[in-house]
UniProtKB/TrEMBL annotation:
InterPro entries xrefs: UDP-glycosyltransf_plant, UDP_glucos_trans, UDP_glycos_trans_CS
Natural source organism: Lactuca virosa
GO MF term list: UDP-glucosyltransferase activity
PANTHER family, A to Z: GLYCOSYLTRANSFERASE (PTHR48049), UDP-GLYCOSYLTRANSFERASE 91B1 (PTHR48049:SF60)
Name of the featured protein: Glycosyltransferase
Keyword terms: Glycosyltransferase, Transferase
This enzyme's EC code(s): 2.4.1.-
């Protein structure tokens, strides 16, 4: 029997079901906290090991958030205990999607038994909207990606499902889509566009990523998105027109504390803080390329030598890439650590990114342009030195270059290679030269949106209110 809140309104039961990547799982968990904060019940579905790796819930919310462990089917193509993208190399993520699809029976049983009001899911479970609709459950897609990336993916759900998008070659993705009606520079570089071609073709799971997304759009009642009207709002309007669905921004979800996967080590921050304290305000470059990027030996070498050549103090979060083992770890250039010991720090395990970016000595962020990292960098007003690699990152970089909050490291258009000189020159331009002042000013301007906690809190409040008022019929 449904319960009621103190104000007399019905307590909702909302199911959250993210894709098996911590860049997705953590935003879904943060959104779950916003729902529970308003007194509603949340069932958070993920695999057993991923749930074990989640940060602890706040004690006042844990009674309302039920962490539901699911058993991921075993596939011989996946390493033992591989349950997230961080556990596999990029080419094996297709097998993770196949295993993920094997969760369908268990998820269906849960929904039948618990009869929630809403289910909020990611791009991957293309089979889920139809099941939820048959059970009379309201359905929403929560996109951890921003509006321009989703708009770039396809012009309509039908085209995405039927494969009737006429963009079939690499060249087709080197210009903005024909359905973008306003001036835009959003497109892939040649070395990035293979990903988009591949995503339109079936992988080991039997379907393409574009098909998954099309089915998700077709079967949803609405779309929630990590976005806000104050930044590039025209993309939200376009998405509603393309997909004939309400698109509701939930805000940029800037973190108030660092959300780490694994144990947070206070002594880690103390060591890093002591180092940062010894440097001049606004002069240190923070370098982090995420946990999914598989850098080649050449990329690591050119990046390292470029940091050294710039002469700027830097702290580099240099973690082994997703799914890598000791045998395929990439080493830094000979003698590099010795040569930079007075002005550089390389950290090879988890770092408290938000605390580092918040330190006065940091003046710029060399980033892979993942949306979460962009939000963290811009909420603190840091200009960006952009080195995108995967999925949405290149498109994000094009938009942010156009907004003049930073620059992209120049690269070879064909293979994406870059040189130590291009890294050093980019860093110097943004942090050390007069020309870089405009990037700092524009990044600080955007921090008034990205870092406005009151504004972003209003978005999450409005999101929960939407859930309360728009309980759909099947």
């Amino acid at each position: 029997m449904p319960t009621t809140d103190s104000d007399g309104s019905k307590q909702l039961h909302v199911v959250m079901f993210p894709w098996l990547a911590f860049g997705h799982i953590i935003p879904f968990l943060e959104l779950s906290k916003s729902i529970a904060q308003k007194g509603h019940k949340v069932s958070f579905l993920s695999t057993t090991r991923n749930i074990q790796r989640l940060p602890n819930l706040p004690s006042h919310l844990s009674p309302l958030i039920n962490l539901v462990p699911l058993t991921l089917p075993c596939l011989h193509q996946l390493p033992q205990d591989a349950e997230a993208t961080m556990d596999v190399c990029t080419e094996d993520i297709q097998y993770l999607k196949k295993a993920f699809d094997g969760l369908k029976p268990e998820v269906t049983r849960f929904l039948k038994a618990d009869s929630p009001d809403w289910i909020i899911y990611d791009f991957a479970p293309y089979w889920l909207p139809e099941i939820a609709a048959g059970l009379g459950i309201s359905r929403a897609f929560f996109s951890i990606f921003n509006a321009w990336f989703i708009a770039f993916l396809g012009g309509s759900p039908e085209d995405m499902i039927n494969g009737s998008d006429d963009r079939t070659s690499v060249e087709d993705f080197l210009t903005p889509p024909k359905w973008v009606p306003f001036p835009s520079k959003i497109c892939y570089r040649r070395h990035e566009a293979d990903w988009m071609v591949d995503s339109s073709s079936p992988n080991a799971s039997g379907v393409s990523d574009v098909y998954r997304s099309g089915m998700i759009f077709k079967g949803s009642n609405c779309v929630f998105m990590r976005y806000c009207f104050e930044f590039e709002p025209q993309w939200l309007t376009l998405l509603e027109e393309l997909h004939h669905l309400p698109v509701i921004p939930v805000g940029l979800m800037p973190p108030t504390t660092s959300a780490a996967v694994g144990d947070e080590k206070d002594d880690t921050w103390l060591t890093i803080k002591n180092w940062l304290d010894g440097h001049q305000k606004g002069h240190v470059v923070y370098v982090a390329l995420g946990s999914e990027v598989m850098l080649s030996k050449t990329d690591v070498s050119e990046l390292a030598l470029g940091l050294e050549l710039s002469g700027l103090p830097f702290i580099w979060a240099f973690r082994k890439p997703a799914g890598s083992t000791k045998s395929d770890s990439v080493e830094l250039p000979d003698g590099f650590l010795e040569r930079i010991r007075n002005h550089g720090m390389v950290w090879t395990s988890w770092v408290p990114q938000l605390q580092i970016l918040s330190h006065d000595s940091v003046g710029g962020f060399l980033t892979h342009c993942g949306w979460s990292s962009i939000v963290e960098g811009l909420m603190l007003g840091h200009p960006l030195i952009m080195l995108p690699f995967l999925v949405d990152q290149g498109l994000n970089a094009r938009v942010l270059v156009d907004k003049k909050v930073g620059i992209e490291v120049p690269r070879n258009e064909q293979d994406g290679s870059f040189t130590k000189n291009s890294v050093a020159d980019s860093l110097s331009l943004v942090l050390a030269e007069d020309e870089g002042k405009v990037y700092k000013e524009n990044a600080m301007d955007l921090s008034r949106i990205f870092g406005d906690m009151k504004l972003q809190k209003k978005y999450t409040n409005d999101f929960v209110e939407y859930l309360e008022k728009h309980r759909y019929n099947p």
